[in-house]
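Lab channel / #folding
Pinned by the channel admin:
"Please post every new chain as: sequence first, then the structure tokens as a reply. Keep commentary short and put observations after the output so the thread stays searchable."

First post following the new format, from NK:
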Amino acid sequence: MVCGAYHGGARVVLLAVAFVLLLGVHGGAAQQQQQLSEGFYAGSCPEVHRVVRRVLKTAHRADARIYASLTRLHFHDCFVQGCDGSILLDNSSSVVSEKYARPNNNSARGFEVVDDVKAALEKACPGVVSCADILAIAAKVSVELSGGPRWRVPLGRRDGTTANITGANSLLPSPRNNLTMLQLKFAAVGLDDTDLVALSGAHTFGRAQCQFVTDRLYNFSKTGKPDPTLDGGYRALLAASCPRRGGNKTALNDLDPATPDAFDKSYFANLEANRGFLRSDQELFSAPGAPTAAIVDRFASSEKAFFRSFAASMIKMGNVKVLTGGQGEVRKNCRKVNGS
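Reply from TO:
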């Protein structure tokens, strides 16, 4: 993992180039856009959106975090071998599950709700709606029900028959990544700086564990000191929740302390005030010479601009290396490949 990329030097450049080449081996950089259709299920499963919405609203009554968690599942699916539902596969004789990759283990959640959606759709229209499409629709509905933008989701993805835990460990953006590494990982799947900032705005709702912020509080970049870009008052607040010693590393904190369960532009105002929870968040605004800072400012001043860009970026991300037509399959159970 490249660290301190803004300090320059030949070693950093070589590592960055090597990382891009690694991503290319995984097929991210050379992806081909596939044709999806907003009306793909108009004849075969016309109630698909209504069914997903009903199941999610029921789940939300018991779990206020579920909308953010389901949105994150779609992200983590698409960044690893494309939007093919691979993150949903359990371990089996032929699959090493991505659920146990470092970015997902004891962190990614919402799988049981996906199971519930799949079961409801199998009753309504058996064997029709793919698990990959369920993730795309669930993310859309989750954002809408949290007050965010509406958009029409292109559909027609097929489910993959493999998982890629190695890819999940190396390709997913990390909360500790600096801006250069984030840009590399997004560019590898065809996403630019505007996409990076807009999609990071999904951290306007949801929670994160203490283990992802303790280094910023106490030993940033192994300096033995806090992250200098972290607002002092916010640092004190986080330190109370995530003490240096004796704390619970899995204790949850609001990603957006202002409006933790609402999808709005508050996240960007937090970055401008140096109150981003994750390093990867604050880097968008505070990295020296960051080209993303102006985009943060634009979204902080205009929720309409943020919503418009977020919807466009979700559609763009949702088209990463998708399987269509006769490729892949439509799983009967999202946790396993058909026939296994």
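NK: The two ends are 36 Å apart (CA to CA).
TO: also worth noting, The beta strands are 207-209, 252-254.
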